[in-house]
């Protein structure tokens, strides 16, 4: 059956205003009540109509402005020194797309911040600098360019940069707008301001990164991955090897999910992260799905077509795909692969049974440009 999007048909609200009805609506309003049929078609649209719009933040333009904040505000005075990326349709929520937040955090040489924890979950994708560290629930992680790390909800965290001379910039991704939409935020400053880190750096990688799980009573039972850091080198090697042996997805190229080694599922209950490789000259077909995605160009250059508009991207650029928006990706190079890091609210969509996906079938799978 071809769906009909005609709001005048039977089964849709189609009441015509009259002076009596308008007076009636006023009476209801005075009691903080209302007639459902005046809003029914808006609150139950035929398909997702996100307020978020596709957006693209070029790193070449953002980077100088991120650096500009470094001498102007002390990191600990600011809480965190972050330039956030706000979707034009979601400014009031500080969301980059849907109910996801993202920003670029810069830390100066030798800088260190105090510890806090909150209900919101966070993830990091490092863009530049080699001195960044973070302590997550007493575990020190050192992260470099293109490394991925998580700060699950409720974990104590503090960060710094141990480089003597180079700032570092990483991208933060948080589910803050989701937590706030659900009226569930909590925030705490560490009673001693700092944690005492264990001696082993990237301890979770030693324990959980060798395809072994503690057995019996020691088994990890928290709802997030026990692995806190996912270094770039093995990630890229794994992706490249899969590209050698597998065709990949027509819509995403060769794509892999960062997983919890305990569940094989997403790293955290609210956010998932993926890494995808577009082969030399590859141009994927378009599809759309529920769920919002924020992409970061880890490597290479190319473009994505989102709802019929082309966005050209280069390394470090960030762009977003709102829920149910058509999207396809293209690698501009005939000699090098391109790699996109992304994070999304897919775990929320799946656990609430909201996941839907559709292929673009016209025009050999490619959207006409508008
Ligand atoms: C936060 O705690 C961090 O700890 C970064 O680095 C960005 C954005 C909103 C709320 C909390 C951090 C954040 C944040």
Automatic annotation (TrEMBL):
It holds the Pfam family Cupin_2. Residues 104-170, 277-342 form the Cupin type-2 domain. One of its GO terms (molecular function) is oxidoreductase activity, acting on single donors with incorporation of molecular oxygen, incorporation of two atoms of oxygen. Keywords: Dioxygenase, Oxidoreductase. Transmembrane segments: none annotated. PANTHER family: 1,2-DIOXYGENASE PROTEIN-RELATED, CUPIN. This is Cupin domain-containing protein.
